[in-house]
Amino acid sequence: MQRPEAWPRPQPGEGAAAAQAGGPALPARAGEPSGLRLQEPSLYTIKAVFILDNDGRRLLAKYYDDTFPSTKEQMIFEKNVFNKTSRTESEIAFFGGMTIVYKSSIDLFLYVVGSSHENELMLMSVLTCLFESLNHMLRKNVEKRWLLENMDGAFLVLDEIVDGGVILESDPQQVIQKVNFRADDGGLTEQSVAQVLQSAKEQIKWSLLK
């Protein structure tokens, strides 16, 4: 009997939608014994990443699928997650059919969201990379004030870690090097990643006053 592959590679366009939505496994191929076909793995691991302040207000957020299609639905979800996690010391929560890993830092809460069947260690690697990269960028001041003043740099960091729900990088040093390269490529100074697109500082302050 032919030995089934433990983790078959997804064919182009095959299995990604079902895996992302937590759907059933694909039917067995011709000649393959029933029940031995495992669910196709998906590269689309991350559903959302967001950072809230200690009142549960959104500071940074990116969603990578249509689970919460509107900003209103996203913010309701974030508030519910915050209420469930802000007073616990755990690092993992299961909420609304999703797996959520999170970390607090001074007056910030960082969250990474995956599907219910997602590997917690994989999600945690993204969370750790995000925190360590921000820690380096903000010179060990991972708190609301410094995050708001360097929001564009924070988005650049996140974009180097996750793109469209796909994990690109989990090494903080590699992330910082790539962000620095993008800063240099744009003709900016290399004093620190925190100075990337510094003009955004006034724009962020203005948006907060509205």
Would you kindly provide a written description of the structure presented here, covering whatever features stand out?
- By secondary structure, the chain is an alpha+beta fold.
- The chain has a domain at about 45-180: Beta-Lactamase (2-Layer Sandwich).
- Helix content is about 40%, strand content about 20%.
- It has helices spanning about 15-20, 70-85, 120-135, 145-150, 150-160, 170-185, 200-210, and strands spanning about 45-55, 60-65, 90-95, 100-105, 110-115, 160-165, 165.
What's the short story on this structure?
This protein has helices at residues 16-20, 71-85, 120-137, 144-149, 151-161, 172-185, 200-209, and strands at residues 46-53, 58-63, 92-95, 98-105, 108-115, 162-163, 166-167. The chain is α+β, with helices and mostly antiparallel strands.
N-end to C-end Cα span: 68 Å
Major sheet: 5 strands, antiparallel
Mean pLDDT: 78
Q: So what's the overall shape?
A: globular
Strand content: 15-25%
How many helices? The count is: 7
Main sheet: which strands, in order across? 2-1-5-4-3
Going by CATH, the architecture of the domain at 46-179 would be 2-Layer Sandwich
CATH topology of the domain at 46-179: Beta-Lactamase
CATH class of the domain at 46-179: Alpha Beta
Q: How do the helices and strands follow one another from N- to C-terminus?
A: HEEHEEEHHHEEHH
* Quantity of strands, as a count: 7
What structural class results from the helix and strand content? alpha+beta
Main location: cytoplasm
Protein name: Coatomer subunit zeta
Domain AP complex mu/sigma subunit: 45-182
Organism: Propithecus coquereli (Coquerel's sifaka)
